[in-house]
Design goal:
Blueprint (H helix, E strand, L loop, with lengths): L4 H16 L6 H8 L3 H13 L3 E4 L5 E4 L8 H9 L22 H16 L4 H6 L4 H8 L11
Antiparallel strand pairs: 1-2
Length: 154
């Protein structure tokens, strides 16, 4: 799975907003706290606002707040807001991509991959991230030493 910088920044900013609680947090504060470029982050927050995940508050006490409780916003919600559907193939949903011959089973693999991603990303909420209290299944998977090895030649 490859996450774009946009998704990474969105998730980090959302976690900061979840940790901040009720009061608004400025783009500058979010950017500084997570060492992100403020202009880039502003565009990401606008996408999140359009998706109904954050609200902007103007004025001297302005900034951004989560539009719903952090316990009701999953990581999948944030990813979809800034990057579109989970697990696509060449920009298409896996169920819309067909293969022929020996490659025919790939479609099932992509659908299973999406289901696996959803199982984790829809279960984990911003509240859990902000508190560092992940669901047991996530903790179990991430505590397996083989999960930390990419097995990549790079």
């Amino acid at each position: 799975m490859r996450l774009s910088a946009r998704v990474d920044y969105a998730l980090r900013a959302a976690a900061e907003l979840a940790a901040a609680g009720e009061g608004p947090t400025t783009v500058g504060e979010l950017a500084k706290g997570q060492e992100m470029p403020p202009k880039y982050l502003e565009n990401i927050l606008l996408q999140m606002r359009r998706a109904g995940l954050v609200r902007g508050q103007r004025g001297p006490e302005g900034g951004y707040v989560l539009a719903r409780p952090a316990s009701q916003i999953s990581l999948a919600d944030v990813i979809r807001a800034v990057d579109g559907p989970l697990a696509n193939v060449r920009g298409e949903r896996p169920e819309h991509v067909g293969y022929l011959g020996a490659a025919q089973a790939l479609q099932q693999v992509w659908i299973a991959l999406r289901a696996s991603e959803r199982a984790i990303l829809e279960e984990v909420t911003l509240e859990q991230i902000a508190k560092g209290e992940l669901p047991p299944r996530v903790t179990e998977l991430s505590s397996d030493p083989s999960a930390w090895n990419s097995h990549s030649p790079v």
